Amino acid sequence: MATATGIHHRTYRSELRLRHTKAEYFRLALMLVLLLSAPYVLDKYWLGITNVILISVIGAVGLNILVGFTGQISLGQGGFLAVGAFTSAIISDRAGVPVPISILIAVVMTAAVGAFFGLPALRLKGLYLAIATLASQEIIMFVVRRWEWLTEGKGFLEVKRLQVGGFEIERRMFEVQWYWILLALAILAVVVARNLFRTTLGRSFMAVRDQDIAAEAIGVNITRAKVTAFAVSSGFVGLAGALTAHYTETVTWERFTLDVSVLYLAMIIVGGLGSIAGAVYGAIFMGLLPALLTELVDVLGSSMPALSDQLPALKNAVFGIAIIVFLLVEPRGLDRIWTRMKDYIRFWPFRY
Amino acid sequence: MKFSTRYAAVATTAAAALALSACGGAATEGGSGDGASGDTAPIKIGIIADRTGATGDVGTPYNDGMLGYIDWINSKGGIKGHKIDADSNDYAYKVPTAEELYKKYVNDEAVVIQGWGTGDSEALRTKVAADKLPFMSASYAEALTDPKESPYNFVVAPTYSDQMRVALNWIAKDAGGKAEVAVFHNDSPFGLAPVADGQSWVTEKGLNLGYKAYPMPKTPNQVGLLTQAKAQGAKYIVIQNVSSPAAQVAKDIKAQGLDMKIVCLNWCADELFIKTAGADNAEGHVMVQPFAPPSAQKPGHAAIDEYLKSKGSSLADKGLHYAQGWYTMDVMAKGIEKALDAGGELTGEAVKTALESISVDTGGVVGAGTVAFTADSHRGSTGTGIYEVKGGQMVELAANQTPES
């Protein structure tokens, strides 16, 4: 199909397919091999980083549904992660509910809280909505910090090692076993999100983003679309939060501050707004950046000790620069860069 | 054309695979130290330090003290011929970064971990227990002293709660009657650690004190908080925070012309507080500090001062937190030494067993002088000194105070 200039479709079925070219199937196969071999190639430290990335993939995909696809900016990501984490931790540890069910409850709970805090979106747009979601972030932070019964006055929650049925995570195999769990869930999240935008609901989200008045004119129920977008997005984020709780085995509010909300926004901006693949790329990029910087400073540290003294500051600076560079050079992110690379090769020797 | 697309895909993924394996390779190289199996194999220690974060003002000298001790002992040939190979990184007082560093150290096969804050120590305590790595930190939260709850945490100094009790005892005596106490605390697990215990101490001992806690906001001045304390009628302000914000309170008290006395616990009870506030503003305030300041000239200060003089500095310049870091590392090193004496492989478990039976003489610097642990209690020492700021110096009012004395 890619023999001519670009990809052409002769039937609707072929257009609706997720993959159009053989190269894309080939890439899928390679990705699978890479993902399946990762736990045998990577050591525990890098596998740990991979696991954190897999969790942020779920969270970033969720946020991209809201910000990238529906056009409702949200600074409440950290708060929604906290709702998921605290719900699942409390329900599984205090009520003795099995973890898979507690995670499910956390997803539903976060979706409900997300829908509630999404209500201002019915009246507000753009910067005004950003401030309203900022308020939701602060309100949730206030609740998890000040309602003492949540943490029984300790200020943090300890979560038992994951145990499902007769299976318990072993200390020595901790990262590997978690890798499989998180990989499965991350793939599930990506597939669900990818397919969401082939449905009426998903398309109504995009219509709201592109032109809400026009969308209403063609019969999209804007109220419903906006609130559902908040709920669906928060559901994904709740899943990421619940997994954070069980994976790190400690829930403290410090993991869910405004910084985290901004970090997730940075992920989807760097990866590409309005693209599921972009959210994945962004999560990988933002997850690897600090680790690679640490390695780099480790290597250079002996000759430049000032560098290792200032590592956290350096990390912040690099984050900032990365975002600015992406906004200037390619506002549509890594995903768009990847598409352009593919197009260049596909259309060669022609420009387009 | 078809060929080139596929070729590109292969090339890109191959490049990605290469990049990935390069990451893995680099990390395994870094982590391939073989622990302490050889005769003089270096001992790996992971240090989680705050140099640039919210508590960096006191975290930097503490970390310097640890690194100084390591440099000093390595120059003397290390612990029984084993050099200490310390990996110290700044985590900027952020719990997730601390966890990231901790994972790195576990992977690098560190034998023990030196931490810093209350939030991260509490967050990591189940992990260090599962990984069997002895963990000391500069957090003296009560929860960390109970081996049943935190089997691998060791606390060298009197807990924040004990410091608070000592402070309240002193206030009750100093006031000689009914007095209102305002507690200004850092808005974090560290700040909150002694707040509830202080309240129950007041009721339990029937102290004639009013008691109210306020989290300190991150504002340029603390006038708003002082207004609230004034409305409460507070004459004493106990501060559980680091030096810089506490010094701001001292400045604001002077500027507002209020008649209040600050009682600083551990982390603001230092020379930095006096320097930042100015000797004038700091005059007359009181400090509860289990670590003897260099001005107290305890025998344990001599070795540190000698080392620092050889580096063209002095302990008086570095301050008491330097000594604090030094002796925390010293206690850990003594534990490692004892574990090496016992023979067998040097593991976290062996160091824990050794630590549970040691008694380290710190030459009067920490608490009452000695730090000792048992299998039932990881509370290293109990005594704490009380100092008053006079003419820009910390002058001892009472030594070796415990809640019951």
Chart the SSEs and their pairings.
The complex is a heterodimer of chains A (352) and B (405).
Chain A: H1 12-16, H2 22-41, H3 44-69, H4 77-94, H5 99-118, H6 126-146, H7 148-151, E1 156-158, E2 163-164, E3 167-168, H8 174-196, H9 200-210, H10 212-217, H11 222-248, E4 250-252, H12 258-271, H13 276-301, H14 305-309, H15 311-329, H16 333-347
Antiparallel strand pairs in A: 1-4, 2-3
Chain B: H1 2-30, E1 43-49, H2 56-75, E2 84-90, H3 95-107, E3 112-114, H4 118-131, E4 135-136, E5 153-154, H5 160-175, E6 179-185, H6 189-192, H7 195-205, E7 209-215, H8 223-232, E8 236-240, H9 243-256, E9 261-265, H10 271-277, H11 279-282, E10 286-289, H12 301-310, H13 315-318, H14 320-341, H15 348-355, E11 359-361, E12 370-372, E13 384-390, E14 393-401
Parallel strand pairs in B: 1-2, 1-3, 3-4, 4-5, 6-7, 6-8, 8-9, 9-10
Antiparallel strand pairs in B: 10-13, 11-12, 13-14
Keywords (chain B): Amino-acid transport, Signal, Transport
Organism (chain B): Intrasporangium calvum
Protein name (chain B): ABC transporter substrate-binding protein
Description:
- The complex is a heterodimer of chains A (352) and B (405).
- Chain A is an all-alpha fold and 352 residues long.
- Chain A has a single domain (42-347), classed as ABC transporter involved in vitamin B12 uptake, BtuC (Orthogonal Bundle), CATH 1.10.3470.
- Chain A has 16 helices and 4 strands.
- A two-stranded antiparallel ribbon of chain A has the order 1-4. In chain A, strands 2-3 form a two-stranded antiparallel sheet.
- In chain A, helix 3 packs across helix 9, helix 9 (200-210) crosses helix 11 (222-248) and helix 12 crosses helix 13.
- Chain A is globular.
- The mean pLDDT of chain A is 89.
- With 405 residues, chain B is of the alpha/beta class.
- Chain B has 2 domains: 43-157 and 297-373, 3-Layer(aba) Sandwich (Rossmann fold), CATH 3.40.50; 160-289 and 386-401, Rossmann fold (3-Layer(aba) Sandwich).
- In chain B, strand 13 (384-390) and strand 14 form a beta hairpin.
- Chain B starts with a helix and ends with a strand.
- The chains are: A mainly alpha (352), B alpha/beta (405).
